[in-house]
Amino acid sequence: MSALLEVKGVSRFFGGLAALTDVDFTVGKGEVLGLIGPNGAGKTTMFNVVNGFYAPSRGEVVFKGERISGLKPYQICGRGLARTFQVVKPLQRMTTLDNVVCSAFLRAPNRAAAVANAEEILKFTNLWDVRDTVSKRLPLGLRKRLEIARALATEPDMLLLDEACAGLNPSELEESIGIIRRIKERGITIMIIEHHMKVIMSISDRIVVLTYGQKLADGSPAEISANPEVIKAYLGEGDD
Amino acid sequence: MTYRKPLLILALLAVLPLIRAVPGVNANYWLHNFILVVMWTIIGMSWNLLSGYCGQVSFGHAAFFGIGAYTSGLLYVKFGLSAWWGMLASIPVVGAAALLIGFVCLRLRGPFFALATIAVGVILRIVAENLTGFTGGDMGIMIRERTWVEKTWYYYIILALAAGTFWFVDRIIASKLGYYFVAIREDQDAAESLGIDTTRYKTIALVLSAVLCGFAGAFYTNYMGYIDPKVVFALHDISVMAIMVVMVGGVATRWGPVLGAVIMILMAEIIRTIPKVGTAHHTLFGVLLIVVIIFLPNGVVGDAAKLRRLLRPGRSA
Amino acid sequence: MKRPLVTALSILVLALSLPLGALASEFKLVVPLPLTGKVAKFGEIMKKSFEMAAEEINASGGIKGSTLVLGFEDSAGKPETARAIVEKLIEGGQPVIVGEYTSACAKAVAAVAEERKTPYLVVASADDAITQQTYRYVFRQNQVNAHYADAFVSFMGEVVKPKTIAILYETTAFGTSGADAMEKDALKLGIKVVLKEKYEAGAPDFKPILSKVKSLQPDVVYMVSYVMDASLLMKQIMELRLEAKLFAGGAAGFAIPEFVGNAKEAAEYVISATLWTPKLSYPGAQAYAEKYKTKYGDYPSYHGASAYASLFVLKEAMTGAKDWSTEGIRDGMKAVDMQTAFGPVKFEDKEGYQNQNFVGTLAIQVQKGEFETIWPKDQASAPFVFPVPTWRERR
Amino acid sequence: MSAAKIEVLLQTLISGLLLGGLYALIGLGMTIIMGVMKIINLAHGELMMVGMYVAYLLFAWAHIDPYLSILVAVPLLFFLGVALQKYLVNPVLKVDAILPENQVILTVGIGMVLANLATIIFKSDYRTTPVDYATKAWYLTDLWKDSPIELSLSFPWTVSFLFAVGITAALWFFLSRTDMGKSIRATAQDKDAAMLMGVNVERMRVFTFGLGSALVGAAGCLFLPIYYLYPDVGGQFTLTGFVITILGGLGSTVGAIIGGLILGVFESLTATYVGMGWAPVGRFVVFMLVLVFVPGGVASLLRRRRFGK
Q1: C108/B226 Cβ within 8 A
Q2: What does the pLDDT look like over D19-65, one tens digit per residue?
Q3: Which of A165, B145, C341, D4 gets the highest tally of CB atoms within 10 A of its CB?
C-alpha cells in the first residue's frame, strides 16, 4: 500500500506552547486511519496543519508525493484533500442542496453539472429529503452529515473527518458509520478523529494515538487496544 | 429565477415620465426624485453585492462613487470630452482603484474591514481636496451646460443602467460566483477549506461592486453638473446612506436595494416636505430608521413574512 | 412580496396628487435654505431676516397690492435636495427663486434656474464661478469672493504697508477662493506671501501651524474661516504670543458676533473684510440691525442683511416688471438700481461676471469688543487703531 | 538648528501631547464599547455633543464651570447610555440578522435624532462658555527671562489634559482592580467564556454602554472650554474615536491614551512640517497601516513586550 499522505516530523507551537511535537505517520491509499487521543492531545491541530489552516512550525506534510505544508487551505482542497469541522460550519442561510452545490463548483464545469453532482451526493448521504431545508434549521445529526456531504462534493482523494459522529443518537450513528464505509468503498482515503471507541475500532484499518502532542502508538485496532501504554494514557482514564 | 416580475416593474417604471401629461403634477420635481431613487437603487445593488452577498461590509462606497464622479468630471475639464464618456472610462479607473483598495483592506475581517473602508473614503476626500491642480480642490468641477434640460433622458439612462445592474447582479448571484460569495459571508474558514480562494473571490466582489457604484457616480456628475469632494466623497450622505438603503430594504435580497432606495429617498423627501414639521424632519426620519431596524432587522424585504404577520391582525380588527 | 410595492406606489400616487394652488392676492415665495446641518446657523439668520423684510413689505402694502407670503424649505446643505426644492418651486409656478447659502447648493440651484429660464437671486453664496457661467437668469446681490477683501486690501496698501503676509484658509470653496484672491492682491501690492496653507475646517488645535507662522514673522496674518475656527485661531494666536503688525480675517467667521463673544480679548484689534456692518449709513441698515437685535438678542451678520435687502430688491424688480412672468421678473431684476440696507444694488456685466452686483466692501475692526467700520474712510464709524499693541503690552 | 526652529518643534510637541490627551478621552469611551460589544457606534460623537450641551446649559443658567459640570454630565450620560443600550441596542443585537452590522443603522438613527433634537431645542447657534481662563497660559519667558525661545502652555488645555489622564487612570483602576471591571474585561475577551463563568453578559453590556457614554460625556465637558458647540459638532469626533480605538487596540485603556498621544503628536508634526490640509490624510493612513500590520494596536505591542521579557 503506497502512502497517500505523509506527516514528517511535524511540530506546531503557539507562543511558547507546543501543540504538536515531531509527529510522524503516513496514511496509505484507500486506508481508514483513526486518530485518537485525550482532549487537548493535538488531534484537531493536526487536522489544521494537514488542511493548511496552520503552517507547521517544523516538519512537513506531503500529499500525493507533493509537499503541501505552506499552501493555503483552498489550494490543498483543490489538490484533493477535503475536511469536515468538529464544530459544524454549514453555510447557515443556504439550503442543504445549495451548500453541497457550492462545494461541487470546485470541479464542475458549469452550474448544471454542479447541481447534478450535488444531487447525487445528497442521495448518497441520505440527505435528499431535506435538500430544500435551510441548513441552520437542520438538527445537529443532519448538519454533521451535511459536513461530510459538502466535503465529498469537492471530489476528494482523501477526507479528514473531525468528530463527524459526536453527539449523534444511536440510529444516526449507525447511518453515519454506513456512509463512512461506503465512502471508503468509493476508494476515498479517510483520516478520522473520533472519541467514540466503538466507531473508531469498527471502521479504522489503522489507528494513531496522540497524547500531549506526541505520537504514542501506531497500529491496527487490535494492537492499539492491547497496547498497555495506550490503555494507561488513554483508555484507562477514558469513560467510554 | 424568472424575469416576469422585474420586466413588469421595469415596464411600469418606463412609463413614469408620462406623469408629465397629468395636469397639476410637478413632473420635473418628481422625475428628479425618481432619478435619485433609481440612482440609489444602483448604489444599493452595488453595495449589496459586496456586503449583502459576500458579507464584506463596506463603509466606504463613497470612494467608488466619488472616483466615478471625478473620472467623468476630469474627462470634461482636462480633455474637453463629454462627461458621458466618464461612464465608460470609470470602468478601468474604478476597477483599478478597487483592486488597490482590496489589496489592502480585504486582509481584514468583520468590523476591521468596515473601519478600513471608512478610512479609504475619508482619505480620498481629503486627497481630492488637496490636489488642487488636478481635481480643482474644494472649488469642485462644474459642467457648464448639461446635456438635456428635460429629465426624461436622464431618467431613461439611469433606468437602463439600473435594469442592467439588476440583471447583472442576478446572473452573478445565480452563478458559481454567487455561491462562493455567500459561502464566504456565511463562514470564511469553511469556504476556504472547501476549495474557495476567499481572497480572490472577495476581490472580485469588491471590484464588481465598485464598478457598479462608479457608474452611479459618473451619472451623478452628468446629471447634477457640479461635484466637489465634500459632496461625492461624503461619509454620511453616500457611504452610510448606501448601507441604510440596503439594510432598510433587505440585505442579500433581490428587491431590497430597490425598496430601500424608495424608502430612503422618496420617504425622506416626503417626510422633509410634510407641512409644519420644519426642521424636525430628521427626528421623524431617525425614529423611522430605529423602528425599522428593531422590528425588521433584515429589512422590509428580508422580513416580509414578519411584516405581513405584523400587519394582519391590524387588518382583521 | 407584492404588498410593500403596492403600498409604496399608493403612497406615491397620493403624494403626487397633492394640490398646489395659491390665492390670487398673495404672492407665495418659498425660499430654500440650510436649516439643519453644519451651516444651519446661517440659514437661520437668513430666515429671520427674510421674515422681517416680508413683514415690513406687507405692512407697507405688499408688492403691487399682493401680500408676500413666505415659506421655507430645508435643503440641509445638500445639492440634490436644494435642486429638488427648486425643481418643485419652478414647476409649481413660482416665477423667481431667492436663497440658498452654500456655494455648492447655489451652483446646483443656478444650473436649474438657468435651464428653466427662471430668475434666481443669489443672496449669500460667494464662489466666483456662480456668476461666471454666462448665465442669463442668475443674479447675485452679494459681492464675489474675489472682491470680498477689496476694502481691507486698500487699507493694507495705504495704512499698513506690510512687506510679508501669511495666509491661512479652510478647505472649502469659500476658503480656497478667498485665499487665492488675497494672494493675487498681495502680489499686486508687492507683498511677499511667506506662507499659504489650508486646514480642515473644525480642527480643534491650530498651534502647530501657528508656531510655524510665528517663526516666519510675517507682517500680516490673514485668515479665511467660515465660522468658529476664526475665534479659535485668534485665541491660540494670543496664547502663543504670535506677534504681527496686523491680524486680519476674510469675512464670514471673523465678521459674526460669535467671533467676539468667544475670542473675547483675543479678538481685540482684529480687522476683517466684510460686506456689511450694523453701523453702516445705508438707508435702513441701522434700523434693521437694531430691530433684529431687539427681536433675537444679537446683531445679524452680513448674510442676514443681504437676505433682508433681497426681498426689497425683489419687490423693486417685480414692481418695475411688465408682468410677473419669469421673463418679466428677469427684466425687472436687470433694471434694478436702488439703495438698500445692504447698500446700492445694480446687476452689471463686467470683469467676466454677469448680473453681478458690485457693492463696495468694508473693513471692520474689533474695538473694545464691538465691530467698528474703519475703511473706507467715508463709511468709518470709528478711526482705525494701528499699529496695534503687542500681546504683552495688552496685559 | 536655529533657536526659532527648536521653538517650533518644541511648541508642536507640546500641542501634540495636549491634543493627544483629549483625543484619548474621546477614544476611551469608544474603545470599551467596541471592545465589549464589537459594535460600530456612529452616535458616539453625538453623545459627546449631549455632554457638551449639558455643560453649556449649566454654565448659561448657573454659571457653573464646565469642568465642574462633569459631575452632572457623567451620571446623566451614563443613564442615557444605559437606556439606549437596554431599549434599543440590545434588542437589535439579539436578533438573528444576516449582517450583524445592522446595528449601525440603529446608531445612525440615534445620532440623527440626538443632533436634530439639539437643533430644535438649542437652535443651530454656535455656543461657547466664555470662561475667564480661556486664553490663560504659562510662558517660558515669564519663568526664565533670558530664554532664547518662547514656549507657552495653555491653562485650559493643560487642565483638560490632566483631567483626561486622571479619568484614564481611574478607569484603568476600575477595570483591573474591581470585580465589575474584571467582568467587563472578561466579557470583552470572550463573551461565551464569561457567560460560562457566571458573568451576566447582558448586564455588562448595558453597563459598558453607559460607561462609554459617560466617558465621552466627560470628554465633551473638557472640550467645551477650548472648543465650541453646535448641534452637528459630533460627527468629526466619531471618526477620531475610531482612529484612537484601533491605534490603541480594541478595549484597552492604556492603549487608548497612548494611541491618543501618538495621534496628537503625529497630527501636530504633520501640521507643522507637511501642511495642515494633509494632516487628516496622515491620520487615516496611520489608521489603515495599524489595522493591517498591527491589528491589536498599541496594546498588543505592549503585551508582546511583556511576554518577551
Answers
A1: yes
A2: 999 899 889 999 999 888 888 888 999 999 999 999 999 999 999 99
A3: A165
Judging contacts by C-beta atoms under 8 Å, the chain D residues touching residue C208 are 11-12, 15-16, 267-269, 271-272, 276
| Mean pLDDT in residue range A91-114 | 91
| Neighbouring chains to D with at least 3 Cβ pairs closer than 8 Å | B, C
**Residue C159 DSSP one-character state:** I
Query: Could you list the residue range(s) of the whole structural domain that residue B21 is in?
Result: 4-310
Sign of the alpha-carbon torsion through C80, C82, C83, C88:
positive
Q: Please, what are the domains in chain C?
A: 23-143+283-357 (3.40.50.2300), 149-274+361-394 (3.40.50.2300)
Q: Least CA distance to C113: which residue of chain B?
A: B149
Beta strands in chain C (DSSP E): 26-33, 67-74, 97-98, 120-122, 138-140, 164-170, 192-199, 220-224, 246-250, 271-274, 337-340, 343-350, 353-357, 362-367, 370-375
Q: Which residues partner with C356 through β-bridges?
A: C140, C348
Main-chain dihedrals φ then ψ at residue C275, nearest 5 degrees: -100, -15
Q: Residue ranges per domain, chain D?
A: 3-233
Specify if B159 maps to a domain. yes
Phi, psi of B134 (to 5 degrees): -90, -50
Segment (H or E) for A58? strand A58-63
In a domain, residue B316? The reply is no
Q: Which of residues 43-82 of A touch B (CB under 8 A)?
A: 51-53, 72-75, 77-78, 82
Q: How far apart are CA B39 and CA B222, in angstroms?
A: 12
Contact C270, C367 (CB under 8 A): no
Q: How far apart are CA B85 and CA A46, in angstroms?
A: 56
Cα D218 from Cα B132, distance rounded (Å): 39
SS3 A37: coil
Torsion of CA C237, C239, C244, C245, to 10 degrees: 100
Give yes or no for a cis peptide into C283 (omega within 30° of 0).
no
Nearest-angstrom CA–CA distance, C123 and C75: 15
Q: What is the pTM of this model?
A: 0.90
How many independent structural domains does chain B possess? 1
CATH assignment of the domain containing B282: 1.10.3470
Walk me through the domains of chain A, giving residue ranges and CATH numbers: 3-85+156-235 (3.40.50.300)
Distance between B233 CA and the closest CA of chain A, angstroms:
34
- pLDDT, tens digit, 9 for 90 and up, residues B154-187: 999 999 999 999 999 999 999 999 999 999 999 9
Quick check: B135 contacting D, CB < 8 Å?
A: no
Contact B293 D102 (CB under 8 A): yes
In a domain, B317, yes or no: no
User: What does each of the 395 residues of chain C score in pLDDT, given as a tens digit?
Assistant: 445 555 555 555 444 444 444 444 889 999 999 998 888 888 999 999 999 999 999 999 899 989 999 999 999 888 989 999 999 999 888 999 999 998 889 999 999 999 899 999 999 988 888 998 889 999 999 999 889 899 999 999 999 999 999 999 998 888 888 999 999 999 999 999 999 998 888 888 999 999 999 999 999 999 999 878 999 999 999 988 899 999 999 878 898 888 888 888 899 999 999 998 888 888 899 999 999 999 998 889 889 999 999 999 999 999 999 999 999 999 999 999 999 999 999 999 988 999 999 988 899 999 998 889 998 888 888 999 988 999 888 86
3-state DSSP assignment of residue A105: coil
Q: Are A20 and A11 in contact (CB under 8 A)?
A: yes
Beta pairing partners, C372: C365
Is-contact D135 C239, C-beta < 8 A? yes
Q: Mind telling me how many Å the CA of D142 is from chain B's nearest CA? A: 40
In whole angstroms, what is the distance from residue C94 CA to residue C69 CA? 12
B150–C contact, CB cutoff 8 A: no
